[in-house]
Amino acid sequence: MNSESNIIIASLKQELIEDIPKTNDYFTLYGRVVPSLQSGKWTYKEILFDEASETRFPDDKLDWSQYINSEDRALFLAYTNDTCIGQIRIVKDWNHFCYIENIAAKQEYRGSGVGKLLLHKAEEWAKQRKLIGMSLETQDDNLGACRFYVKHGFLLGGADTLKQSYNPNIETTLYWYKLFE
């Protein structure tokens, strides 16, 4: 595992497109976030699963060229020793937030600071565009991701129990926000 000082963040270029799917590794589902809205404030509790499981998202099939030299969207890749180890894909959203469409790190580099560096790059990009913060969504069964976002200053701002109705394993979609000062 490398330290943050050995990680380079690069903007997407045509020749780097082939590296995008390399960061889509399996991740562990070991608990659930249960949100609660009381007096207009979101709180949550964590429930750990009796048995953990592994999952991964399907590979995205997007026109990656739209993320190259765009004012309204970007994709940054993290490298160490010429190996792609992470990515963050962001867009300028209608509500003046930088919406994080995806953030991923290779399994063996999680905990190395790559996610933090990618979030910092996204925040820098968003502030250059005078956006008010960053937002994203997670599924309630991805406790590891939720903990990561909280650690980096995100607050739970909402929940949706219908968005993932097609998926019997996901009860709630959670919406996380980080407001800039």
Topology:
Elements: E1 8-11, E2 27-38, E3 41-55, E4 73-80, E5 83-92, E6 97-105, H1 114-128, E7 133-139, H2 143-151, E8 155-160, E9 173-179
Parallel strand pairs: 6-7
Antiparallel strand pairs: 1-4, 2-3, 4-5, 5-6, 7-9, 8-9
Question: Could you characterize what this model shows?
Answer:
This protein is mainly β and 181 residues long. 13% of the residues lie in helices and 43% in strands. It has 2 helices and 9 strands, in the order E-E-E-E-E-E-H-E-H-E-E. Strands 1-4-5-6-7-9-8 form a 7-stranded mixed sheet, with helices on one face. This is GNAT family N-acetyltransferase.
Name some characteristics of this structure.
two-stranded antiparallel ribbon, mainly beta, seven-stranded mixed β-sheet, Aminopeptidase, 181 residues
